[in-house]
Amino acid sequence: FVQFCMQYSSLALLYYDYVLTFPAEVKHIWSRRITVSTLLYICCRYALLANLLYLFAISNVINQVNLAVTHCDDWYTVIGYVSIAGRAAVLAIFTARTWATCGKNMLILYGLGALAVICIAIDFV
After folding, report:
1. pLDDT 10s digits, 75-94
2. CA–CA distance, 57 with 59 (Å, rounded to integer)
3. Three-state SS letters, the chain
4. Is residue 54 a contact partner of residue 72, using CB atoms and an 8 Å limit?
5. Who's near 44: CB < 8 A, 6+ residues apart?
6. Most CB within 10 Å of its CB: which of 52, 62, 98, 114?
7. CB neighbours of 64 closer than 8 A, spacing ≥ 6?
8. What is the pTM of this model?
């Protein structure tokens, strides 16, 4: 019970922030043409949707709703892919920012890039 209360309250706070910042997001993100940085932003911001879906799956909310995806494993697959997309975006932004901060050192780029690829590959295993 306490676990669900903590998860629901943290998600409520997160989505409250989404509601507060959505007008600025529409103005600065959605009204512009889509670029790589826009896609990375979207993946980082909305990958937390996977947490909400996971919470609904483990609390049996998804199974009670009659949706197109009816099998539990299908939901976990969708949740997994959304989570991986978010993690990949976070790693890409972290790698690019660290590379730029370190004077565009190619060793940093290749080293962190390799670690990011390894992390994402492990997610698929």
Report:
1. 678 778 888 888 888 899 99
2. 6
3. CHHHHHHHHHHHHHHHHHHHHHHHHHHHHHCCCCCHHHHHHHHHHHCCHHHHHHHHHHCCHHHHCCCCCCCHHHHHHHHHHHHHHHHHHHHHHHHHHHHHHCCCCHHHHHHHHHHHHHHHHHHHC
4. no
5. 86, 89, 90, 93
6. 62
7. none
8. 0.67
Q: Which two tokens stand for residue 14?
A: 């997160």
Locate 20 and state its tokens: 């507060």
- pLDDT by residue (tens digit) across 5-58? 887 787 788 889 889 999 998 888 888 888 988 888 888 888 877 777 777 777
| pLDDT value for 69 | 53
Among 40, 50, 15, smallest CA distance to 123 is for 50
